[in-house]
Amino acid sequence: MAINRPRFVPTTLAIAALLVAGLINGSSVAQGDAGQRRSSPGGSGSFEVGGVEVDTSGKTANAARLAGWRLAQRKGWQMLSRRMGGGGGNLSDSALDSIVSGIVVENEQIGPNRYVARLGVMFDRNRAASILGVAGSLSRSPPMLVLPVEWSGGAARVFEQRTDWHEAWARFRTGNSTIDYVRPSGTGPDSLLLNAGQINRPSRGWWRMVLEQYGASDVLIPIVHLFRQYPGGPIVGQFQARFGPDNRLLTRFSLRVGSGDALPALLDAGIKRIDQAYQNALSAGVLRVDPGLRFRPPGLDEEDEATVDESVAGDEAVIVDGGAGAISVQFDTPGSAAVEATERALRGIPGVRSAITTSLALGGISVMRVGYDGDVAALKAALEARGWQVTLGSGAIRIQRARTPSPQPVGQAENATAG
């Protein structure tokens, strides 16, 4: 049976049972939604356990699949508990339902009464840490801008057009990584500022200007060279992990798959090894911010620099970069079209000089850096006038499309989400 590419199903098992009933169709499950769900790439709020093998049966395909997911939760918890020191013990299915934040389908085969799969399980970091008796926080690197360079057919591409390499980085979950990745969306000026030529420019002044646009401290340059033997045939990927304005090589390796359909799996495996290489370099002190990027012109006082105010309230957490008319705005991004539409909407507001997505999380909440000639309250009023719901904290903004009543007969209270 066909092997499905990894995808993220953001749901507790109770909701998953409802999804299963409507999504199963033969051996292919939710393929149309895979692109929308594929990344909750931020993933910093989860512990992830991968490679959980399950083989279950049931009266129906739905029952077998649900039994497989429950078994994966139990196995995944045991694996996580052993990894963290063995303090988790055995938990009931109801307790596991409350701490599992998602199921990652790495590979699955579905029959009329049987379910065979390799799954990943994502556990809520804070809840799981409290049960395991470990610290839930994760020490991370300074924010690092990612430039995923793909060489294919003799040409190098970054954000000039969508590439398989870019898509692979967009769906990569960083929950267990100590690297704070800043992943551009590839829209707006990204294709001009971030291209293959940029990685060979050593000028620290130019790099500082670019990094400031994305709220990053340094740059990571993961590169893949793809060699196809013939259309649809074996593919060899030669990977390089580079970093810094001097384009320093950290490691290189090669991977191979037997068919073109396995390209996503090849790239996902390459990213995992590159991420591990970056983490090892960080712990060894090799991966650190270039001193030239920390340069401040003489006479610049601390008070003159932009200040950062963080307002943390669960998923409503936002960051505002004040002092220079630059505001970080969080917004929902169910798909790539939402990123472009929101950027266009923000740029159409009078007083907005720029709107650039600095952290992309397809299927979750992304962050946009907005250059605005005015204060936060004025921007809030302008957004609300255009139909947005705006949450204003301590100088902070979180925007969502406002909900308006859909045309319904008198007496019905259903609402529809405004497009």
How would you characterize this protein structure?
This protein has helices at 13-23, 31-37, 61-83, 93-99, 125-132, 164-171, 190-193, 204-214, 263-283, 336-347, 376-385; strands at residues 7-9, 24-25, 28-29, 46-57, 100-110, 114-124, 143-146, 149-152, 155-157, 180-182, 218-228, 235-243, 248-257, 308-311, 318-321, 326-333, 352-359, 364-372, 388-392, 397-401, 403-405, 415-417. The chain folds into 3 domains: 7-132, no CATH class; 143-292, Rossmann fold; 302-405. The longest helix is centred in the first third of the chain and has 23 residues, at 61-83. The protein contains 11 helices and 22 strands. With 419 residues, it is an alpha+beta fold. The model is unreliable at 1-5, 10-44, 298-324 and 404-419 (pLDDT under 50). Helix 1 runs antiparallel to helix 3 and helix 6 crosses helix 9. The protein is 29% helix and 32% strand. Strands 7, 8, 9, 10, 11, 12 and 13 form a 7-stranded mixed sheet that branches.
Catalogue the unreliable spans: 1-5, 10-44, 298-324, 404-419
CATH T-level topology of the largest domain: Rossmann fold
Q: How much helix, percentage-wise, in residues?
A: 25-40%
Label the structural class: alpha+beta
Number of domains: 3
Termini separation: 38 Å
| Overall pLDDT | 75
Beta-strand fraction estimate = 25-35%
Q: In terms of quaternary structure, what is this? A: single chain
Radius of gyration: 23 Å
| Global outline | globular
Which CATH architecture of the largest domain is right?
A: 3-Layer(aba) Sandwich
Q: What count of helical segments does DSSP give?
A: 11
> Can you summarize the main beta sheet?
7 strands, mixed
Query: Can you count the beta strands?
Result: 22
User: Briefly, what CATH class of the largest domain?
Assistant: Alpha Beta
